[in-house]
TrEMBL record:
Region span, Disordered: 253-275
Cross-referenced SUPFAM superfamilies: NAD(P)-binding Rossmann-fold domains (SSF51735)
Occurrences of domain Ketoreductase (ranges): 6-193
Family annotation (Pfam families): adh_short
Name this polypeptide is given: Oxidoreductase
Organism (species): Streptomyces alfalfae
Assigned keywords, A-Z: Oxidoreductase
InterPro entries found in the cross-reference section: HdxpentlteDhPtlF, KR_dom, NAD(P)-bd_dom_sf, Sc_DH/Rdtase_CS, SDR_fam
The keyword Oxidoreductase is assigned to this record: yes
A GO molecular function held by the record: oxidoreductase activity
Length: 275
């Protein structure tokens, strides 16, 4: 971690990667604002870190509410003064294992509210204030390997992570000539409460699993640097290579010949069709 990292805001901090980030930053001496919608769990975790000597403040906030996000930013700057790091980490899994046409629409919308729109709201609340302060800072978006690799039955989660990757890339371009660095965290499977007992959909999970503490280490080690993509799992290179090899394969495909059968033969159906 860069020695300048003295203050940080972490969202989704009551468990998983957010809790691990908060603990790692606090142990390194940073003062941390921990934010989460789960107020009871958040306060317990903050109390545990405080008992271990950490300087942490728990703020219960629904990050899908623009007013709540503005209040979080107000509180963060009031408590911390200047902010060195914002970990835009809140996230939910949503419906998994169902094809797009069967996944409940409201649950899909909830996934986008947390994984995409909450990240947008946090960036919109914090970045202008960081720019006004004129100091170096680092914004870290938690996306996922699902921003690149998509398996069956994961449309809502993967689409929200694709969207967050695009937001992070856009922010990086927007802030290129400023002192604010942007990184996007793309972990594979992580041992967190969110995925306990979950069987990953076909093609979505990868072959490795890492701890939330290991992911937090990847982030903290990158703070202050210009590293944009942050990967935590050892199978990331092969998974990315497979994806982009498939893209290049389609780029180089020649147009179909007139003799090629373009439509597959229909599958046989059972039962008579009534007219």
């Amino acid at each position: 971690m860069h020695s300048q990292t003295q203050t940080a805001v972490v969202t989704g901090a009551a468990s998983g990667i957010g809790l691990a980030l908060s603990a790692r930053l606090a142990r390194a001496g940073a003062s941390v604002i921990m934010a989460d919608v789960e107020g009871g769990a958040l306060r317990r975790r903050a109390a545990e870190l405080t008992a271990q000597g950490g300087q942490v403040t728990a703020v219960t906030a629904d990050l899908t509410d623009p007013d709540a996000v503005e209040r979080l930013a107000d509180t963060a700057f009031d408590v911390l003064g200047d902010i060195d790091v914002v970990c835009n980490n809140a996230g939910v899994l949503g419906p998994v294992g169902q094809p797009l046409w069967e996944a409940p629409l409201e649950r899909m919308r909830e996934v986008f509210e947390v994984n995409h729109w909450a990240h947008v709201l946090v960036a919109r609340a914090f970045v202008p204030r960081l720019l006004a302060r004129g100091r170096p800072a680092h914004l870290v978006h938690t996306a996922s390997m699902s921003a690149f690799v998509v398996g069956a039955g994961s449309a809502a989660y993967a689409a929200s992570k694709h969207a967050d990757l695009a937001v992070a890339r856009s922010l990086r371009a927007d802030l290129a000539d400023t002192g604010i660095r942007v990184s996007v965290l793309c972990p594979g499977r992580v041992d967190t409460p969110m995925v306990q007992g979950l069987t990953a959909p076909r093609g979505a999970g990868g072959d490795t699993s890492v701890s939330a503490e290991a992911v937090a280490g990847v982030v903290v080690d990158a703070l202050g640097s210009d590293r944009f993509y942050l990967f935590s799992n050892s199978d990331a290179p092969q998974r990315l290579r497979d994806q982009f090899d498939d893209v290049w394969r389609h780029v180089s495909l020649s147009p179909p010949s007139p003799e090629e059968e373009l439509w597959p033969a229909p599958k046989a159906t059972t039962g008579a069709t009534k007219h």
